[in-house]
Amino acid sequence: MSYLDILHQYWGYPDFRGIQKDIIESIGSGKDTLGLMPTGGGKSITFQVPALAQEGVCLVITPLIALMKDQVDHLRQQGITAAAIYSGMRHDDIVSTLDNCSFGGIKLLYISPERIGSDLFQTKLRHIKVSFITVDEAHCISQWGYDFRPSYLQIENIRKLVPDAPILALTATATPDVVDDIQDRLGFKEKNVFRMSFERKNLAYVV
User: Fold this and answer.
1) Ramachandran sector of residue 105 (left: φ over 0; alpha: ψ -120 to 50; beta: rest)
2) Rg (CA), the chain
3) 35, 149, 157, 186: which could join 23 in a potential S-S bond, CB 3.0 to 4.6 Å?
4) Per-domain boundaries in the chain
5) What is the pTM of this model?
């Protein structure tokens, strides 16, 4: 099934917009990819569509637990197998979710950055086929970013456990220094950035 067919079937949109298609084709071809998209620019489509087109589990690392739960609920309502792992979950629930990923029962696994450093996750990850890794709010990995989180530095260790899985990094805010730093810290094989215009035609300044 093509990317456009997946978009039609699950989201009902007639076509991709902005740089969505460019990002999807880039990560779909196995290239480490950084997408700069404003909030509301349709970031989730850029990883959810290629996740459904590929074998294995798309790992989505995000610090926003409320957003994580919301997206999992929406995906499940659309008939897409998604799950989330975050702080506060029971150990047994985490184990069963990771086992489900190993057996191919999950297409998208959302996980908080604090959980990826755990021994349990890293042990189970060795038995999971990962299609690619999505890093949402990717500016959090940069010490030049306004919201640096040390837990994001664990992501490079995850790459070593699944070396064949490319990385899709997404953020709405990044200076040129942060753009370079994100790619360096995530171990991009080569620089690869897509930028969407941040102009909002529906907004105006009146003085």
Assistant:
1) alpha
2) 17
3) 35
4) 3-195
5) 0.92
145 burial (CB, 10 Å; 0-12 / 13-18 / 19+) is buried
| Per-residue model confidence (pLDDT) at position 105 | 92
Nearest to 21 by CA among 46, 43, 57: 46
pLDDT tens digits along 25-48: 999 999 999 999 998 889 999 999
What does the pLDDT look like over 82-99, one tens digit per residue? 999 988 889 999 999 999
CATH fold group of domain 3-195: Rossmann fold (3.40.50)
Strand partners, 35: 170, 194
The DSSP 8-state label assigned to residue 8 in this structure reads: I
- Closest by CA position to 62, among listed 151, 131, 145: 151
DSSP string, 86-152: -TT--HHHHHHHHHHHHTT--SEEEE-HHHHTSHHHHHHHTTS-EEEEEESSGGGG-TTSTT--GGG
C-beta of residue 41 within 8 angstroms of C-beta of residue 33: no
Q: Which two tokens stand for residue 167?
A: 């990385």
Q: How far apart are the first and last CA of the chain?
A: 51
Q: Could you report the per-residue pLDDT of 107-161, keeping only the tens digit for each?
A: 999 999 999 989 999 999 999 999 999 999 999 999 887 789 999 999 988 999 9
